[in-house]
Write a structure and sequence with these properties.
With 350 residues, this protein is α/β, with parallel strands linked by helices. The protein has a domain of 196 residues: 3-Layer(aba) Sandwich (Rossmann fold). It has a 7-stranded mixed β-sheet, sandwiched between helices. Strand 2, helix 2 and strand 3 form a beta-alpha-beta unit. Helix 1 packs parallel to helix 11. 45% of the residues are buried.
Length: 350
Amino acid sequence: MKNVSYKAIDFFCGGGGMTCGLRQAGINVVAGVDFDSDCKETYEYNNQGSTFVLADITKLTSNYFIKNFDIQKNDDSLILVGCSPCQYYSIINTCRSKSEKSKNLLWDFRRFINYYNPGYVLVENVPGLESRADSVLPDFLEFLKKKKYTVKYKIINMNHYGVPQSRRRFSLIASRVKEDINLPSPDKKEDYLVLQNVIGINNGFPKIEAGHIDPTDFLHTTAGLSEINLKRLSKTPHDGGTRLSWKDDPELQLPCYIGNDESFVDVFGRMSWKKPASTITTKFFSISNGRFAHPDENRAISLREGATLQTFPKNYIFKTKSVAATAKLIGNAVPPEYARRLGKLIINSK
């Protein structure tokens, strides 16, 4: 069987997590599409040869990739990737009116599948895409079925696929050229990665204090903390401690948590060395937004630690202007390691 040279277009590419992983697998990612201009420099710097297309998918013409990249219809080796923003289907409280625009982006992505009829389709999103009653997923699946695609999808925990964090996601793979296509097989339980496998002094992360600014591209930078939050962390036990350790301290306890010990226990919590990290969100630099405190040091995890927990290579350079902007690119990304496994699966499938 002759070798096939696969190519991909990565819609909603962000800072390039999916593109990075597919390229690691040996797939030529021709272009990444996103409407956020803050993604462009990071995407193209780290994925040279893959062009960043600054565009709103709802306004992008279907024949754009024929005209600009010589992409052909009915190409069995073409992979279209649609990891659309998912605020509408997220379990995290978001303003529904602001997130409404993200509800139908999968349907907009469908237009390009219909036009190009690629060999493969990949989708990654929040679990809510499958569980919400008003989801566009059923119609999308029916569309793929009518187009004669074999479709496999399920909710996975990416910790079972080489990612050192607990990250439940909806993952879909579809093919019109291979009937036995499936999602990657999970690792054995004993091989699941935990925090101590990837961060800490032994993994190249020196001790730093809250507010440390790393001027190098390594970006071992961490957000500053107020005096009261430093006191809270100093009273939070190392290696997995929670805010419950200071709930009876009138100076440290927050009014919203008084008598509410069962809610939001992860907030202000420390990560544990022998467990996977919490889901890395766009707010992982803030200890008040989840269990994002370092297991031992009195600070939130650094930008590079967050990127490493998302499986970005340590030489992946984030060309951004602020801590928040960098964290947004990292938290929104598809972990490159999972993307690499999807790419390898396609390449190796018979």
